[in-house]
Amino acid sequence: MYSIVLTGAVRRRLLGTAAASALAGSALAGCGLFDDEPAPPEPADPLQPLLDEAMALAASYDRAIAAQPGLASRLTPLGDDHRAHVAELTLVIGKTPPSVAPSASVGAPAETVASLREAEQAAQKSAVALCRAAVPERAALIGSIAACRATHAEALR
Amino acid sequence: MNPQLGAALAAEEAAIYAYGLIGVHLEGRGDVTEARTVEQAHRNRRDYLVSRLSQLRASAAPSPAGYQLPFEVTDRASALKLAIHVEDGVAQAWRPVLPVTTGNDRITALAAMTEAAVRATRWRRLAAVSPVTLPFPGRPTTP
Fold first, then answer.
1. Is the pLDDT of residue A30 over 90?
2. Where are the domains of chain B?
3. Which residues form the DUF4439 domain (chain B) (predicted)?
4. Exposed, middle or buried: residue B125 (CB in 10 Å: 0-12, 13-18, 19+)?
């Protein structure tokens, strides 16, 4: 039978090795190799992707209306819903909203009713996934946003 | 979770009652077929809630024999108005289930709320009500 009991000397030696490698690690970290690394960013709020989608969708409706003014009466209320989501999510996340639309909207392809509908369906899916994982106090808001995106897909049929 | 599920059950029971009345006043094969499909969807949700509450060993209040309608239903326009009212109410009844559930139960509640919101949008379009959507379906609206 192999004994797992370590003698005092062996244990001291092992602990010493561990301490030495810990020291080596910190020396390495302090030697300037990693000084270029920025401070770790503050973890993003789990609602951030939902806010980004809402802003992108609102911008998509603006582009669609600019390209086809005849669709304005049909599309404007849908874009307004997304702007209401942006306002509410910004409030819940507790940060000041960016003053400009995401840069992705510049030079993005022309929007059609069909592409808007696809975007709504994709955004609904991601909202459902977020709702599933959400803390209780945010579940109702995320759920309403998911449901709203589904009604948009219906309105664009 | 039981009081919230009980409230959702009451809303689904009310919807089943209302669609019986709505169907009578709708015209055209499209409208009538839609109303029948929707009534069946509400029956399925009711059955789900009854079995879920029974699993949780919770008793649900018996559904009332009749309902007080929010307004008189006499023609297609008032029938569509009632359909919109009913679906908004069903969505509002399911929304409080979301914070008190997790996992698949929450996803089922969200699906029920979403389907009600989508039907409300469809009825608004048929009734030529604008806008056809709400920014936060299920959130109680201030009267």
1. no
2. 2-61+70-126
3. 5-140
4. middle
